[in-house]
Inverse folding.
């Protein structure tokens, strides 16, 4: 391209108001676009962080979440005899059979009721998930109808503070402590004694069984033994992290599709804004274009110059939008996760690929918006353009 | 004497709706190298149209135009663009400087189309601005200059590439008398001192006076003078 870049940039500078408004339009759309992707990524990151690479989660093959999975005690015992499972100091397999249920709790502020996951755990659950740490109060006692609440539950739901009683399964469960799990999905759960939970719900089966591998790379061996056992055909063993990652895909995918659908509609507005701005630029500079062409600059140079101008406009908008979107990382929100049918708290999270997609989105708006005006500029007849002074 | 511009039986008309407006009617003439020609005639007589044809920014309906041995009608559009950048220097009535570029950058603009290095371009720009007496205004933007100074920058831009011909359409049409005189003196100097071939359209008799040859166009034909 022969038309100097400073010509393009300075022309944008001469029309500060229209340039500013157009940049703002693009920035707004990119902000929303990035926010949606950051939300989806935040959900994913939270759920992925929930799982560990050293744990294996066993669920029923047909189940699409922990809630709908059932593992009876006999099966759980069979699984615990498989090789490659880490042992506790007293020689027992390091495993936690966990009933997972959903209860209703009232949300603070929002004035509604939402689903909360209650997980029944064995005492070993805390060795399996060392990231889960008691923050306040005390741990629930084995054999008591007591719960500990994840930090996100404590802060977002009414009646989930230490000392409060939560009513479900025909009984009152006392909240005796709160725990923190480093921003993972467990923060949005309440934990209690697995046997008490089974008892209260009159159940005899866990939802899932989680075991710790004796070595991080032992999964293939474990999985081979698992698959060979005819009695376990209806069940599936997955690395825990992978399991939660898959759980996040539906929710993240839904947010992404809805969000992208909405922003693409928004983007039509910003793109038309860029088109109007660029048409005005071409109209204002018709004589200039005629002059440049007379001097020997070619149609394609004129096309490139105006397209670049539109591109610079939209890229600046893209950076502005991203700049403001990056502050969303400071916020954490909660919403119903379709994977687990319960409330999940998460933070907006930015990734390099979100930065790139947002900028590409801005570039697309600039190129599409600037295309017709640039073509008009390139197709101007030199003599008529010069006569229009 | 060698003629540098040959216009042979050129006709051109414009169409407005379905009316044909004949502008040039079978015009033929030659301009020798080093000529300083003034084209005069009433408004609408086709002066600008003829100048545009010679400068290769418009094409005739009929006839042929050769400049420095090139039949410019045979060139493709991009060849013609390249040809203009090396052979034609344009001077416009309203200067047509790019407002967002400094005097220096405006003069450098046509040089960007050549293969000159940045350093060589600088030498050309400085030389051209020195010829027009504006070497101390290089970093000024057009709006910081008077009309006469703007036209001098435009002339510097026109001569920076050392083109074969200079075409000027009413170069003093927008200037006060003093500035106009300066511009005319400058054009005269370019012709005598630098041997530039100049074709100037004007309806100002004082401007025409400075040219070596004056031709009168009327209703698309040359009047015998
Ligand atoms: N693009 C155009 N469309 C229609 N008519 C035109 C166009 N350009 C010039 N004309 C007409 O051609 C005639 C000659 O114009 P021009 O060459 O500009 O004359 P001059 O420069 O001598 O005043 C005028 O009648 C003008 O209206
Ligand atoms: Mg004219």
């Amino acid at each position: 391209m022969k038309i100097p870049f400073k010509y393009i940039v300075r022309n944008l500078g001469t029309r500060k108001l229209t340039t500013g408004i157009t940049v703002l339009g693009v920035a707004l759309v990119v902000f929303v676009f990035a926010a949606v992707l950051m939300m989806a990524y935040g959900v994913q990151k939270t759920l992925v962080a929930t799982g560990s690479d050293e744990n294996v989660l066993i669920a029923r093959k047909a189940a699409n979440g922990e809630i709908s999975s059932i593992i009876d005690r006999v099966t759980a015992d069979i699984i615990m005899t498989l090789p490659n499972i880490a042992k506790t100091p007293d020689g027992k397999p390091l495993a936690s059979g966990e009933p997972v249920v959903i209860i209703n709790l009232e949300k603070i502020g929002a004035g509604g009721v939402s689903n909360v996951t209650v997980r029944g755990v064995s005492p070993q659950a805390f060795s399996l998930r060392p990231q889960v740490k008691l923050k306040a109060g005390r741990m629930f006692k084995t054999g008591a109808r007591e719960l500990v609440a994840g930090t996100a539950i404590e802060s977002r739901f009414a009646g989930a503070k230490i000392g409060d009683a939560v009513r479900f399964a025909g009984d009152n469960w006392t909240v005796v402590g709160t725990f923190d799990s480093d921003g993972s999905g467990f923060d949005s759960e309440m934990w209690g004694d697995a046997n008490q939970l089974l008892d209260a719900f009159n159940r005899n089966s866990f939802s899932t069984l989680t075991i710790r591998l004796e070595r991080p790379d032992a999964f293939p061996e474990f999985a081979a033994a698992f698959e060979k056992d005819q009695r376990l055909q209806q069940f599936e063993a997955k690395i825990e992290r992978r399991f939660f990652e898959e759980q996040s895909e539906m929710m993240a995918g839904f947010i992404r599709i809805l969000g992208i659908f909405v922003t693409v509609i928004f983007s039509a507005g910003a793109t038309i804004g860029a088109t109007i701005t660029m048409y005005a630029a071409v109209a204002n500079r018709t004589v200039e274009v005629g002059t440049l062409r007379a001097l020997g600059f070619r149609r394609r140079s004129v096309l490139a110059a105006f397209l670049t101008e539109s591109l610079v406009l939209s890229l600046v908008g893209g950076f502005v939008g991203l700049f403001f979107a990056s502050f969303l990382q400071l916020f954490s929100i909660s919403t119903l996760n379709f994977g687990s049918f319960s409330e999940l708290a998460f933070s907006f999270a930015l990734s390099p690929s979100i930065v790139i997609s947002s900028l590409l989105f801005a570039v697309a708006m600039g190129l599409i918006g600037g295309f017709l005006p640039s073509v008009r500029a390139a197709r101007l007849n030199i003599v008529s353009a010069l006569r229009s002074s | 004497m060698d003629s540098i511009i040959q216009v042979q039986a050129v006709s051109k008309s414009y169409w407005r709706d379905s009316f044909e407006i004949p502008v040039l009617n079978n015009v033929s003439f030659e301009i020798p190298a080093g000529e300083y020609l003034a084209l005069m005639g009433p408004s609408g007589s086709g002066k600008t149209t003829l100048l545009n044809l010679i400068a290769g920014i418009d094409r005739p309906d009929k006839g042929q135009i050769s400049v420095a041995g090139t039949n410019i009608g045979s060139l493709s559009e991009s060849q013609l663009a390249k040809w203009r950048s090396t052979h034609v220097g344009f001077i416009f009535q309203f200067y047509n400087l790019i407002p967002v570029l400094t005097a220096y950058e405006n003069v450098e603009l046509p040089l960007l189309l050549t293969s000159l290095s940045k350093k060589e371009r600088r030498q050309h720009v400085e030389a051209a601005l020195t010829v027009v007496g504006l070497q101390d205004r290089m970093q000024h933007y057009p709006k910081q200059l008077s009309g006469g100074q703007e036209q001098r920058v435009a002339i510097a831009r026109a001569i920076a590439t050392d083109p074969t011909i200079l075409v000027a359409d009413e170069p003093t049409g927008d200037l006060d008398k003093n500035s106009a005189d300066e511009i005319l003196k400058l054009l005269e100097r370019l012709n005598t001192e630098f041997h530039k071939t100049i074709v100037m359209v004007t309806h100002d008799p004082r401007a025409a006076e400075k040219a070596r040859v004056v031709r009168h166009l009327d209703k698309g034909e040359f009047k015998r003078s």
Notes: Strands of chain B lie at 3-16, 19-32, 36-40, 62-67, 70-71, 88-91, 165-169, 197-201, 213-218, 221-222. Residues 82 and 113 of chain B are 8 Å apart (CA to CA).
